[in-house]
Amino acid sequence: MSLTRRQVTVAALGAVPVAFAATGTAQAATPRRTRTLYIAGDSTAAQKYSDAAPETGWGMALPFFLCQDLAVANHAVNGRSSKSFVDEGRLDVILGAIRPGDFLLIQFGHNDEKTADPARYTEPWTTYQDCLRLYIDGARARGARPVLATSVERRKFDASGNAVPTHGDYPAAMRALATEEGVALLDIQALSLALWQKLGVEETKKYFNWTATEQDNTHFNPPGAIAVARLVARELLRHRVLAPRDVRRLDAEIPESWITWPAPAAA
Questions:
Q1: Burial (Cβ within 10 Å: 0-12, 13-18, ≥19) of residue 93
Q2: Per-residue pLDDT of the chain (267 residues; tens, 9 = 90+)
């Protein structure tokens, strides 16, 4: 994916509420400061454009599950690892904008596995954890809360129809780091694997970017992105990263028509 395409999507901010006194006179209520949840990640979360439709990153669907005074800034970019995202200055962009009370949701692993590419490869128990610490420390230094999320699983089944994990030691390394650093962990790898197992070989095709010309077992279509975003939102609530007032529609049907793909940015 071209480096000239900006991968930032910010959800619309809610209007300032108005409270009415007992006399019936309208008074401006003291608004809560709009907080922002930043996403640092790869193509499974990233904003997609009209030239890639129906491919959909789960970060595109996450705002549907969050209340309007919690914005989403999606900095996830196709093809990036925990290392290359830092080396390209993308973490610096986030850390230059993030404020106290904001959140940094970190999901990497898919491209850290690329052993033949030294620009992206990290070793699970050493350089991968070292890179993730840069995100954790950077967020904390600015008064923001870091949150780790294990990589969402690919669609892969064995001959017996069992969903198969594909990320090696990366999820375990992230879990261990979360414990060591006292960081909330959203175990999206385990949850998505269980979801693919429940859906089965054929039904999961309806969640991935399977088209007449492409059989993509890594990236999602709108139903898949919505399903994974729902997992993320539920875990943010379960781990008390977010409060009940911060989330919505966790059990509601989300229309696929809510997903839109903007025109590609000019080169």
A1: middle
A2: 333 333 333 332 222 222 223 333 344 444 557 899 999 999 999 999 999 999 999 999 999 999 989 999 999 999 999 999 999 999 999 999 999 999 999 999 999 999 999 999 999 999 999 999 999 999 999 999 999 999 999 999 999 999 999 999 999 999 999 999 999 999 999 999 999 999 999 999 999 999 888 899 999 999 999 999 999 999 999 999 999 999 999 999 999 999 999 998 765
Distance CA 155, CA 200 (A): 10
* Residue given tokens 């490869």 in the structure block: 121
User: DSSP string of 186-203?
Assistant: E-HHHHHHHHHHHHHHHH
Measured CA to CA, the distance from residue 219 to residue 43 in angstroms comes to 7
What is the Cα–Cα distance from 27 to 17, expressed in whole angstroms? Answer: 9
CA distance 47 to 185: 23
User: Which residue from 151, 117, 147 is spatially nearest to 135, judged by alpha carbons?
Assistant: 147
Cβ(206)–Cβ(212) below 8 Å? no
**Residue whose structure tokens are 């030691």:** 169
Neighbours of 263 (CB within 10 A): 8
51, 264 Cβ separation under 8 angstroms: yes
Q: How far is CA 79 from the centre of its chain?
A: 14
Beta strands in 31-153, from DSSP E residues, in sequence order: 35-41, 70-74, 103-107, 145-149
